């Protein structure tokens, strides 16, 4: 604690627009996104065309849905390493039920959702019950799901993929909801972009405008304090794990209906991308601070850079270098901004 | 039951005790908390102060003795039970979330809402207004209740926690070492809030190991040592010197002073 002179005038004088912006967690990500956008707009011809925009928005969309859910969980003070493989597991469950058990796709999707929520609840329950770091608990779930995905797929299909979704009942209608296109001008955009924006908006609203959002910040910021004033800490955390699992289900469903084939190793390795996007978006690794909109912007930076490098005809190996620098930069910027947020008196 | 002015005491404990396994943390402690009065609980580290307030605030259950709230025999199963009975505790860590704004902290766990069902949302306008007004009533004027609680001084944070308890209808306020981490000036500020809460008719339980903080605001002093009561005194029955002596362990302290003098020589 710094001892600050409690003079009213001083407090007023410091309440500038800059200070107001600086305390927003997503400001760093927003500036980064503008820089990346301008850079690739200048360096490549295709980046700023309608087709180009559709490409990088689509790349950002599925990543963004997950990043937003992971951001909520991180603000709540926990990690979910099983989030990536969950997109694969849910796709496989849907695909197997629809193609092997002959279920209507809608019903298969519903069962898959129940499965995802169950795994999410289990993750959350294990974490709050044992008090172990969620990093370890969800690493366990991650490995277990990875094994199940491969093992069961091989048992059922004798290969490492499930295909044939197109022949299953309800493909047209479910495909329309999760994997269709919409036109702006004469360019087709993926419907996943709408899901991404809608999910980010909903998450931001919940986080900042509802009681539950208040609890998310509290359980991540100081769980014992939150418990002492009557916040249901365990319930809040379990619901957050269920939210990332449900987001994994949404992305898994979008993928299976888009590609009509589910690979048994789908989603593995993506969990860190979600965390990176959330951190770039202003989430603290220690919890209690962050933004859903920021995470969505973090995913946007990701998508823009990944596709921008392709448009520029560079080797995609450079993407990882970019990612590393971006992540380090974001953490440093976040750290500085957070200190200011704590210090700035308004 | 001791009665004060015809009203049953807000809290009365009789021969209350608690053990953790084979450790007797508290034995045969009795005291009373009346409306508009401050009951101070004094004692050195490990004297059983924390155990006593954990029983009063519903964190732990007592194993022996009787615990009356408003004259009714009670056993709390959770802090929520204590809160529902009007007993609010301001813990040493204040139960505030430093990165959250003042008004969000103020209402944490009991948020005001508007709308129904899935559209239910925080009533931010009223929340901010009530938080600002409640703090102003306690003598703290904040320009912006959106600032993180972490930016406030230690005394101001105490005030937020106390104002919160009062706003949510606490009849008894338990303050756990509110001055422990504070400087002289900030301690004075906090003691003024304690007096204000008392003058509003709340029963206050002030836990401290500093008799000079306890004596000016206290009406009754319970001195604990190694889990046992050295006595519960009305203010008229004890002087500050005697209180200090009792707390520090009387004869032991004199022996220590003697020893120190020898070392110095």
Largest sheet of chain A: 2 strands, antiparallel
Please identify, by name, the CATH architecture of chain B: 3-Layer(aba) Sandwich
Overall 3D shape of chain B: globular
Biggest interchain interface, per-side counts: A-B, 35 and 35 residues
Q: Sheet with the most strands of chain B?
A: 6 strands, mixed
CATH superfamily of chain B: P-loop containing nucleotide triphosphate hydrolases
- Biggest sheet of chain B: strands side by side, in what order? 8-11-12-5-13-14
Total of domains of chain B? 1
| Gyration radius of chain A, in Å | 21 Å
Which parts of chain B are unreliable, with pLDDT below 50 for 5 consecutive residues or more?
none
pLDDT averaged over residues of chain A: 89
CATH fold description of chain B: Rossmann fold
Assembly state = heterodimer
Please compute the radius of gyration of chain B using only Cα atoms: 20 Å
What is the CATH topology classification name of chain A?
Answer: ABC transporter involved in vitamin B12 uptake, BtuC
Number of helices of chain A: 15
Average pLDDT score of chain B: 84
Strand content of chain A: under 5%
Fold and architecture overview:
The complex is a heterodimer of chains A (346) and B (265). Chain A has 346 residues and is mainly α. Chain A has one domain (15-343): Orthogonal Bundle (ABC transporter involved in vitamin B12 uptake, BtuC). Helices cover 72% and strands 4% of the residues of chain A. Chain A has 15 helices and 4 strands. The two termini of chain A are 16 Å apart. Mean pLDDT of chain A is 89; it is low at 1-13. Chain B has 265 residues and is α/β, with parallel strands linked by helices. Chain B has one domain (3-98, 170-264): Rossmann fold. Chain B has helices at residues 49-56, 79-84, 102-107, 124-137, 154-167, 184-199, 211-217, 240-248, 251-264, and strands at 3-4, 7-8, 11-20, 23-33, 38-43, 64-69, 72-73, 87-90, 113-114, 121-122, 172-176, 203-208, 220-225, 228-234. In chain B, the strands form 4 sheets. In chain B, strands 8-11-12-5-13-14 form a 6-stranded mixed β-sheet, sandwiched between helices. A 4-stranded antiparallel β-sheet of chain B has the order 4-3-6-7, covered by helices on one side. In chain B, 47% of the residues are buried. The interface between A and B is medium-sized, with 35 and 35 residues.
